Amino acid sequence: MRAWAQSITAALLVVLVATLATVSTTGDSGGTGSVRMVQGTQSPSAAPGDASRPNLVFVLTDDMRDDDLDHMPITRRLLADQGMEFIDAISPHPLCCPARAQLATGQYAQNNGVQHNRGEHGGFAALDPADEASVWFRDSGYQTAFVGKFLNGYGPHDVRPAGWTRWDALMRGVYDYVDFSMTGDGDPRRYTDSYVTSVIEDHTNRAVRDFARTDDPFVVYAWHLAPHYRISPEGGRGHPPALPQDRELFVGERPAAFDDPAFNESDVSDQPSYLRNRKQVSRAEVTAENTARLRALQAVDRAVGSLVETLDEQGVLDETYIVFTSDNGYSLGEHRFVGKDVLTDEVLQVPLVVRGPGVAPGSTSDLPATLVDLPATFAALTGVVPQWQVDGLSLAPTLRGEVQPFRDTTLIQTGRTLGDGWSHRGVRTERYLYGSDGTDAFLYDRLLDPDELVNVVDDPAYAEVRTALERRRLELVTCAGWTCNQQFGPLPGPTGGVARKPS
């Protein structure tokens, strides 16, 4: 356990978070002299051992765009139409391992140690398995099962996170759909003639059936590989393969990215370094990748359907929360970029839907939720207490239809394999997206420029805006717990004329 966690008990943290609802500061914080702290944890809704405690199933995809959900009719019908959709949810560290570490710990990378997929600060090796939130549920009497992709680099000889009753994680061939190995809850098995989504689906439903036959509630995580591109164990890379019944779907489908003004942006010379000097992407190649991704997601869509059917057959659907999201978004040619691990809207944005007891069917929320908020939410929904300080806010009040105070500025960041492990780190507000690596910076006014085509970081009209956002950035890059969830107050707007990129 880290030093700060050794010195502060979980009980003291709960008291501290509950007590410090407001804090006064001096100086300019972007147009206001006060900073309000938003409470980061809620009291348990049920005592451990209470048979009325709900179950929770968490379905995660890999590299799924927010608009991909429009091509998953079963998931939309059974989850979004029967629950709440968060229409402004983001992955604030949009890369596989950092995103998954946030989901495993409820903390940002500066606190959980996972800043990238590789290197000294990357992958499973950078995560302390003892700081994995499944222990919260295990210690509160929940049965727990994990199925699917965990963090890159996890292997058969690595320590199994202690809180899982069942542990069936991908190992060798973690990015392959047809040649892969899984831990098998202590009985490792290699699959060479099966489809990974179908295996994850089967093992998830098996865990639900077994758990539902007992008197104890359960938490099941089903973390899928789709629609991530395929990497064979030998290193070959290609589009994700689909099951036979899906291989003729979406022929001629127009990628949603084509309708974004940022697609193949005409001039990227003012963009941050990771978008600058790029050639325009091939429409044919983007179309082919988009088609393959949508085809691969159809098996996940059916897996969601069979999961709901299994819960219903076992008589536990009405007492189970089902959460669906992705570890990050994905760019398909916006700003001439294909991929992730950059701080643009299409990479940050993820689908997030929740169905369960007390959640109004067909409801939506524009709360700026993040993946970091989900562990705190899971704890509140199941009535368990986090065993360490978490950086997110529970979304439970919003799910219950209540008006919920929330932070007005969200930390966003990316890492690198070298040096201190950090690349661009910034903040996202309702209007602005801002970030810097110390020398290379960007600032988008999303009110006037929703497609993030004009980097106004050096525009004199935004000098005060940049100063205020930089203050917030510097405070949040070292945040922990409730300091990550501040209401800084209003920001200044641009002054004088505003520069515009020629069309």
Automatic annotation (TrEMBL):
Keywords: Glycoprotein, Hydrolase, Signal. Residues 1-21 form the signal peptide. Residues 54-384 form the Sulfatase N-terminal domain. GO terms for molecular function: hydrolase activity. It comes from the Bacteria. InterPro entries: Alkaline_phosphatase_core_sf, Sulfatase_CS, Sulfatase_N. The keyword Transmembrane helix does not apply. SUPFAM superfamilies: Alkaline phosphatase-like. Residues 26-53 are annotated as: Disordered. Belongs to the sulfatase family. This is Sulfatase N-terminal domain-containing protein. It comes from Nocardioides ganghwensis.
